[in-house]
Amino acid sequence: MTRTYALIAAGAVAALLGGTAGFILLSDRADRFAGCGGGQVAGGGDLIGGPFTLMREDGVEVSEAEVIDDLTLVYFGYTFCPDVCPLDLTRNAEAVDLLEQRGVMIDPVFITVDPERDTPEVMASFTDYLHPRMVGLSGTREQVEAAKSAYRVYASGPGEGDNYLVDHTNLSYLMHPEEGFLGFFRGDLPAAQLADSVQCFAERL
C-alpha cells in the first residue's frame, strides 16, 4: 500500500513539474514577443497551423514544411473575390516590400478556398500580378478543406454557376517553421503597421 501511494505521489510530482515546464516555455514565448502585436487565438497558438498538401501554382505538389520554411504570411481567399481579397493581398504585398527594404525577408502565401475555379494556372496569373514572390496554392477540394481545417478557416461554397461569391475568413496568419503560429492580422491594418509588427517578431526569433 505504501509503495502504491509513493508511486502515485511520484506521478503527481512528475505531472506537476511537466506542467510547470510547459508554463515556463509558454511564458518565455509570450515575454519574447510581447508588444509585437498580432491577434492571438483563445486556447493557444497550437490550434492554428498543421499538415497540408497542396498544389503550387507551377503544378508541383508541396507540403506545409516546403511552403513554410521561413517567416511566412499566409492568407486564405479566392481570385474571383470582388473586393476584400485583392485589398488584403495588395496590403500584404506592400508590407513585404517595406520589410525587404528594412532587410527583413518574409514569404507571402495565398491559399485558395475555391479550388473549383482557382486552378494552378489561374493562381499563377493572379499572384504574379500582385507580387513576384507571392506563392499561390490550390489543390483538390479535399486538400483545400484539410488546409482550411488546420488554420480554422471558414469558407462557404462552392456555389452554383460561374459567378458565385464565397463568404470566408479574411485574416493573414504569420507563421514560422519552428515557432509555428505567431499572430494574425485583420484586413483593416495598414501595410506600414503590418510591416512594423512582422519586423518586431522577426527581430525576436
From TrEMBL:
SUPFAM superfamilies recorded: Thioredoxin-like
Pfam annotation, one family: SCO1-SenC
Positions bound to Cu cation: C81, C85, H168
Cystine residue pairs: C81-C85
A GO term for molecular function: metal ion binding
Keywords: Copper, Disulfide bond, Metal-binding
Record-linked InterPro entries: SCO1/SenC (IPR003782), Thioredoxin-like_sf (IPR036249)
Similarity section: Belongs to the SCO1/2 family.
PANTHER family attached to this UniProt entry: ELECTRON TRANSPORT PROTIN SCO1/SENC FAMILY MEMBER, LINALOOL DEHYDRATASE_ISOMERASE DOMAIN-CONTAINING PROTEIN
Name of this protein: SCO family protein
Organism annotation: Halovulum dunhuangense
